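Many introductory courses stop at the sequence. We go one step further.
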Amino acid sequence: MPTRPADPHRRHPARSIAGWILTLSLVLAGVGWIGASGDSLASALSPEALMSDADREALVDARADFAATLAERESAFAAIDSLTGRETRLLRRSLNRSHVSTARRLGIDPEAPEAEAREDLEWLAFENPYYVARRGHLTPDALAALDSIGVRFQSRLAEAGLPAYRFVVSSAHRSAEYQAELRQRNSNAASGTSSHQFGTTFDIAYRRYRYRYTPAQPLARPVLPDSVSVLARGHLSRELDAMERAWADRMAHEYAGILEAELGRALIELENEGVLLTLREVRQPCFHVTVAKPLASAGGSA
């Protein structure tokens, strides 16, 4: 069998690898990597290694300014009072029987099979500007109530000088079958008919919040000198975005009680206006909320 002539343009694998290693060695030597420690290696890879001394100095100043801005914003959390005893009582004035009777008036058939019930319900968005939800369905009126809560909550946060947070919807419509299964697994589940079966009721976790990061509207950024390079500006922008998100997540954890207080006050206002009923649960860390009047046909949130 005749041998195939070697392709003069084809590179031998061993030579290709050797050439790649030689090239890499020259690059590493050029930036002082040969024999360098791991920290030096990471430093050489950093975009800051390509910046001028003036750029790096500007970044140091900008980081310090932004850290001071975040510290100042944190003081706004500390200035807000937790829920008072009176406010806590107001959040428990509508007991479960009131929720069920209101849900029966405004909701779907609680005994309808799940597939049939969903014909009159709408999907909860996984996330929107006001809340985060894993899954679930609600009546259009209940969805409008969720938006009303979100608008009121974020308005209160803005007035207090706090960044925008979204709350977490932990439960929505439950079919009769699911409610029966839940009672077997969870002793805290309501006995008898639950207002969740009507599609008008949802639970909001009062200790869990998600920062509403908006790239187009971040927290105030330091002003850089005109001489700072495009590379340095881009690097700093990404760095400060990460700082902002990490700070906001930490605030949501450390000041969950303060965010609960502002959310609770929004719920009290809306209940006073006849929009919804609220029950602050104790054994489960959530607000149990039922829409109290038609909202979807009235043009949306209150």
